[in-house]
Amino acid sequence: MMQTCPLCASPDIGLYHRGNEREYLSCRHCELVFVPAWQHLPAAEEKAVYDQHENHPGDPGYRRFLGRLFTPLAARLAPGAHGLDFGAGPGPTLSLMFEEAGHSMAIFDPFYAPDASVWQRHYDFITATEVVEHLAAPGREIERLLDRLRPGGWLGLMTKRVHPREAFGDWHYIRDPTHVTFFSESTFQWLGRRFDLDVTFPADDVVLLQKR
Fold first, then answer.
1. Model confidence, pTM
2. Is the separation of the CB atoms in 108 and 115 below 8 Å?
3. Ordered strands of the 33-34 beta sheet
4. Which residues in 145-196 belong to E strands, given as ranges?
5. Does domain 13-211 have CATH number 3.40.50.150?
6. Which residues of 46-65 are buried (b: 16+ CB within 10 A; e: fewer)?
7. Every domain of the chain and the residues it spans
């Protein structure tokens, strides 16, 4: 079966790792590591995994976790900025943190908040925490997010960066069957070149991309 990179569409693909149940391919152009589409979970099984998540706004530990993205991004925003939390999940929390800081927020999640009207507006910032590793079509989705950003706007992402090949098989992140795309710093730098973005890594697992 012909396989191209789901981020950059390059056909220059090689095997990165073969596990017991899935293969992991790597793109030699943008350096994304990904699970081939025919090994993804059906949508109903994917949602069943998310339904087990117990994140909620009243959990101080969860807020501290989200703070790794919230703190550096909030420091870069003008007062009263308008944002979108993409992939908010069953217990939206990051959007509340930004609202508490004086910013207005919209949320979108294909399973829990499928409000298509969010794509009719533009935003000063967009967040996606522990989301991009779930995207079957990351190139299409990231381009859609960037299209909704105003010039100078920020796309803030939280996701663990891909482990080296020799340690990849023991990496806990690949054990989640809903994780299908894995980004490295080089992949984010490719995004910066492709879409004319300034790329900053303010914390572990966090990247900020500013639209020039």
1. 0.96
2. yes
3. 13-18, 23-27, 33-34, 181-182
4. 149-158, 181-182
5. yes
6. beeeeeeeebeeeeeebbeb
7. 13-211
